[in-house]
Amino acid sequence: MPDSVNPVTPVTFPPAFLWGAATSAYQIEGAVREDGRTPSIWDTFSHTPGKTAGGDHGDIAVDHYHRYRDDVALMAELGLNAYRFSVSWSRVQPTGRGPAVQRGLDFYRRLVDELLDKGIKPAVTLYHWDLPQELEDAGGWPERDTAMRFAEYAGIVGEALGDRVENWMTLNEPWCSAFLGYGSGVHAPGRTDPVAALRAAHHLNLAHGLGTSALRAVMPPRNAIGVSLNTHVFRALSEDPADQAALKKIDDLGNGVFHGPMLHGAYPDSLFTTTKALTDWSFVVEGDLTLIHQPLDALGINYYTPTLISAGDGDAAGPRADGHGNSQHSPWPGADDVRFHQTPGERTVMGWTIDPTGLHELLMRWTREVPGLPLYITENGCAADDKPDAEGRVHDPERIAYLHGHLRAVRRAIAEGADVRGYYQWSLLDNFEWAYGYEKRFGAVYVDYATQARTPKSSALWYGRLARTGALPPLETSE
């Protein structure tokens, strides 16, 4: 398909477009034992030998808990007008239930006030993978009660911040929480049970629905509530019917399992067929789909790379859409007869193919499936081998090229009718990159982990110019 955006002339975005960056609590905050906070599943998992690269953990991370004012000032200097962050559940409710710890809520109150003071629009994500350990000890996401506890937590945070924060996301990438956390075990809590992964997926859906209702009960009607999904871009290796059937099976497990109930009020029937040898789905209680299928004000899309699918014996050592092709356990229940292939093209240091057409494809898919629903790019970015030069500057032309290509894809989608309202680069800061520890740097801002010094990379300065002007310059003048 030809690109309708001219690559050599400036491209402008709508005047009200949000230009932001995103982070998550466990990856940046540190201060894991301060002000009443108790362990989350990521505290436990990262301190378990062999679970993260180099045994890294988020005890200090990039010390955002103590440095948030400086980090907000840095955002303002760069020209960002939006910031998406997540709340640490165990900082607000240390046991995952009961009354809030006000000291924990006060941190987020101060952060929001600081953002608003600098003219930066806050966007809150309630859950970015850090379940309180006490709830995991009680069964975690495979248990229905966890969804009930999430609704209570959502109401607490919504009541505390809803008067000043207008944009909300219930969950971030529930696919990762369910299938990497309980299926392949490469994420916390590290369990490898395909049935538990499916149960977790349903209860995350239920948590989203109950949490949405809880937020609406305590917040002003003007506030917008959505969810951030890492909707996968799957492509079949060929038109062969077997490859097309494999594509459908994986699309159900990667996409339909969440956007089916959340956005359409039903699971795909073919999902039940794929997983019938594992479970009868009796954990889906009558009325659940109505609770899950709440009207939404926005949809967050997280995109990094597409995945190529074919029929054939599954290859656990091959590349997969989870980014962890060397796991001994599959995150795809009932899909052992599907093979994953590396898509061709240039790759980031994560080994992920750079393909902006996948982002355009996603935006147009959602424009067709849920017409009229505002869309946000809530994560997009790349890891690179960033190093300071002799003068202490950090040049990352490959990230500029990545952003340029993907933002052109966004503008093309807008020109074709997609209602895209904003873009949040992943991530504001170099940080703890989950199982990869501190090896992979996604940040717009370089962090010296020994000193916690922050240095905006050349891509951050480029992105800041874009945020201030709303105009995407030609790539030739981007560096």
UniProtKB/TrEMBL annotation:
<dbReference type="GO" id="GO:0008422">
    <property type="term" value="F:beta-glucosidase activity"/>
</dbReference>
<dbReference type="Pfam" id="PF00232">
    <property type="entry name" value="Glyco_hydro_1"/>
</dbReference>
<feature type="binding site">
    <location>
        <position position="27"/>
    </location>
    <ligand>
        <name>substrate</name>
    </ligand>
</feature>
<comment type="similarity">
    <text>Belongs to the glycosyl hydrolase 1 family.</text>
</comment>
<feature type="binding site">
    <location>
        <begin position="433"/>
        <end position="434"/>
    </location>
    <ligand>
        <name>substrate</name>
    </ligand>
</feature>
<keyword id="KW-0624">Polysaccharide degradation</keyword>
<feature type="active site" description="Proton donor">
    <location>
        <position position="173"/>
    </location>
</feature>
<feature type="binding site">
    <location>
        <position position="426"/>
    </location>
    <ligand>
        <name>substrate</name>
    </ligand>
</feature>
<feature type="region of interest" description="Disordered">
    <location>
        <begin position="314"/>
        <end position="333"/>
    </location>
</feature>
<dbReference type="InterPro" id="IPR017736">
    <property type="entry name" value="Glyco_hydro_1_beta-glucosidase"/>
</dbReference>
<feature type="binding site">
    <location>
        <position position="172"/>
    </location>
    <ligand>
        <name>substrate</name>
    </ligand>
</feature>
<feature type="binding site">
    <location>
        <position position="304"/>
    </location>
    <ligand>
        <name>substrate</name>
    </ligand>
</feature>
<dbReference type="GO" id="GO:0005829">
    <property type="term" value="C:cytosol"/>
</dbReference>
<keyword id="KW-0378">Hydrolase</keyword>
<feature type="active site" description="Nucleophile">
    <location>
        <position position="379"/>
    </location>
</feature>
<keyword id="KW-0326">Glycosidase</keyword>
<dbReference type="InterPro" id="IPR001360">
    <property type="entry name" value="Glyco_hydro_1"/>
</dbReference>
<dbReference type="InterPro" id="IPR017853">
    <property type="entry name" value="GH"/>
</dbReference>
<keyword id="KW-0119">Carbohydrate metabolism</keyword>
<keyword id="KW-0136">Cellulose degradation</keyword>
<dbReference type="GO" id="GO:0030245">
    <property type="term" value="P:cellulose catabolic process"/>
</dbReference>
<protein>
    <recommendedName>
        <fullName>Beta-glucosidase</fullName>
        <ecNumber>3.2.1.21</ecNumber>
    </recommendedName>
</protein>
<dbReference type="InterPro" id="IPR033132">
    <property type="entry name" value="GH_1_N_CS"/>
</dbReference>
<feature type="binding site">
    <location>
        <position position="128"/>
    </location>
    <ligand>
        <name>substrate</name>
    </ligand>
</feature>
